[in-house]
Amino acid sequence: MSDNFLEGTSAAYLEDLEKKFLEDPSSVDKSWAAYLQALVGGRSPASLVEGYQAFQGREGSVAPIEGLANSQGIQESMRLLLLLRAYQVQGHLAANLDPLGLDPREPPIELDPALYGFTEADLDREFFLGTWKMKGFLSEDRPVRTLRDIMGRLKQTYCGTVGYEYMHIGDRDKCNWLRERIEAPTPPSYGKQRKLRILDRLAWSEMFENFLSTKYTAAKRFGLEGGETLIPGMKALIDRASELGVESVSLGMPHRGRLNVLANVVRKPLPAIFSEFQGGVKPDKDGGYTGSGDVKYHLGTSYDRPTYGGGMMHISLVANPSHLEAVNTVVLGKVRAKQHYINDVDRAKVMPILLHGDGAFSGQGIVYETLDMSALSDYTVGGTVHIVVNNQVAFTTDPKSSRSSPYCTDVAKGLNAPIFHVNGDDVEAVAHVCELAAEWRQAWKSDVVIDLTCYRKFGHNEIDEPSFTQPLMYQTIRKHVSAHQQYAEKLVTEGTVSADEVKSIQQGVKDVLAAKFEEGRTYEQKKGEWLTSFWSGFKSPVQLSQIRPTGVNLDLLKKIGMGATEVPEHFNMHRAVRRVYEGRRKMIESAEGIDWAFAEALAFGTLMAEGNHVRLSGQDVERGTFGHRHAVVHDQKTGERFVSLKNLPVQSEFSVSNSSLSEFGVLGFELGYSMEHPNSLVIWEAQFGDFANSAQVIIDQFISSGEAKWLRQSGLVMLLPHGYDGQGPEHSSARMERYLQMCDDNPFEIPDMDKETRMQVQSHNWQVVNCTTPANYFHLLRRQVHREFRKPLIVMSPKNLLRHPAAKSRLDEFDDVETNDLQGCRFRRLIMDASAKVKDPKTMPIEPDFKRVVFCSGKVYYELAAEREKLGLNKDVAICRIEQLAPFPYDLVGRELNRYPNAEVMWCQEEPMNMGAFHHILPRMTTLMKSKGRAGQEIKYSGRDPSAATATGFGEVHAREQAGLLEEALTL
């Protein structure tokens, strides 16, 4: 071995050299230092080149070791390191990942020793590898090993049934952490008890699906056949996470395998699942609310289950629609809220697990939005375990038609997440990578991805015919032996279990399934399966909740107001922002002129003083898109941040967070956050109202219908800046009409509106509001929390009114003193005309001389009022502001119709006729007028003509249109 630079050198000498280097790298020759550094790091062969160059230049204080330091030896060692690195980087491309054996990939040329100059003759030569622990199996206390041994272990580790992708991670410590575990001195293995546990879990996974297919042959269930190893894998993950300190797991997943996960991972009672197949959730005996319900493979639930380590794990599965990945950030928001409420600052006790399909993971943008949020300080949850159930086909689409990357998981590499590809037929390998994923998440608090490569035994659902589009794949699948059968045969062959023991396990599963099936015939849903403890005592849509006041004691208001305007003396505020804060202090001192942003701050502060958590999130919310809020101020010299509301002596926390440029993901996150605990005000603000268009899936599938489908309440507030200011169609596009169209009330029936018994809001799916005064906005926000139920709130928030001189409120409009005049201490669903002084219908005087009553909503009121004043029509035209568009205030609108019995009725809006509130208002007012004996009276319209675009982009045209609708509203 004359060309081996180690010839003549003992292993003991090399170990001594290595020890000196680790203690003091400068104590060895520079060429050896560079060489040893490359071995220690295992990441940058370039350093070895430097070592070779140093050797050639004869740099260094220590003479090279005789017989060892020749250029051929250094080059050969460098080539060996390049080969090792090739397996670490690209070994996964040669791994045995496809259970069906249909993967046509050729191993990369970089894995061929011949590329590095090694021949057959070199296989039994010995090479020095180093002895330090981080080298794992490449040392095993044997610093000198043959190339054949090295190649065997490399293939076993990197090209078996697990393919590891982790060398793209830029953090050296993370890479070495993984390498130590991946390149362990001995391959992962399980003892008899662990194997029996895995076999039992795999039996439950497969036989549950078989049982359902037998009992419900024609039912869609989106079974897990072909991916059954997911269940023992998830259970191993949860067991390991429990050992590492996790106490609660929140799951999000699509419908594939959902029933199996519910039954075998979450431990939802089997009779409950069978009951849903036999007719669904039955109404409570007391006539309780059951909602519309949903298909069984969309439902969520929550349970506590024991782990094998002796602990208890709370597991919740979040309900989701068929939009496969939409639930992702909803889960993360829920997890973040859980962490907040139990003070899990290290994010070690609550862990999210998201399951994905392969087509969806690569194809849906929400996946990237989810990953992008993973390390953001106000959105991180300390790492998510992603499991891709890779069926190798998305509905009917082959991978080559559904993505442009080799793997469906490649998007995760951009966020430096490790990815473990695993053959779904190797159940022990699946369990191993799931445990490794749990360890990674707990160690590094960052995302990790498991790519479970399996197959789909049947079509997209059980009555689908997959051979239409994948004939060759399904020819193979029909002949393929299940993972359960393979593993049982393996354990019998190796002597771990006998064939009789396997049959006994299987018979035990069958017996339990049969017994639970019978129980399902008479099963009654328990309320505890739907509600968490935080929501105990909250009312359903069929239980009366009393109206509560929202005013606040003036002393507390002043205290909050003064505190919210205090900034440390040393803080160098921007001049314009300082003027804003000084102006707010004057508002408190004078008790008048309170504007929109300060009213909001007072609402936040008073709610926190009462123990309610407040969270505001969205793009640019810290200062506000229109520079009005300034909840966060920045030192102009140091960049230091200051949040005055966080420095109040209150009982709860205020969080305000500029989000990533995401609507879909962030709105989902805030929805999930709001669902965890009712004693919170959670707000998402769109930069402009039309930005909500990008989050329509969350709005349509979750917010508007979540309570009806899944019996889950949320008090989420959406602020959608809206108004017509001549800034073009995209700045006037909050699309109010969409939210009104999704309201679930009947426009042809007037509900009970008696103050003591009305349940209109409770029976509604959500609220849509377009209010006009800071005080009303204050009460609106506080009303969200001061109830015994929760409903989503859509606010058409203003732009123009943020600084409008007339859109101001006095401090006494915020107080808790009951009065009979215009102020009061609750949110006003309708604001009467300025000439009206009496609210009580019993003592209300009739105004027979008014010729017209104009109903409107939002900032157009101020333009109408100014134009009316200009024209001297204050005694001829009344203007009523409908602040709450939905649920429609029949009682208050009816009161105003009674007040002006001889007046013609008009609706005025800025939006085109086919948009805005007109088509929502029209049938409801028609119904109401009919009940008042005014059937047939026309409801006139003043507004823009129907249009495809929401608004004109020409300033002159906008001004002409605005003047025209005002003229039409006020010309008698």
TrEMBL record:
Gene3D superfamilies: 3.40.50.12470, 3.40.50.970, Multifunctional 2-oxoglutarate metabolism enzyme, C-terminal domain, TPP helical domain. One of its GO terms (molecular function) is thiamine pyrophosphate binding. Its cofactor is Mg(2+); thiamine diphosphate. GO terms for biological process: tricarboxylic acid cycle. Keywords: Magnesium, Metal-binding, Mitochondrion, Oxidoreductase, Thiamine pyrophosphate, Transit peptide, Tricarboxylic acid cycle. It is found in: Mitochondrion matrix. Belongs to the alpha-ketoglutarate dehydrogenase family. This is 2-oxoglutarate dehydrogenase, mitochondrial. It comes from Cymbomonas tetramitiformis.
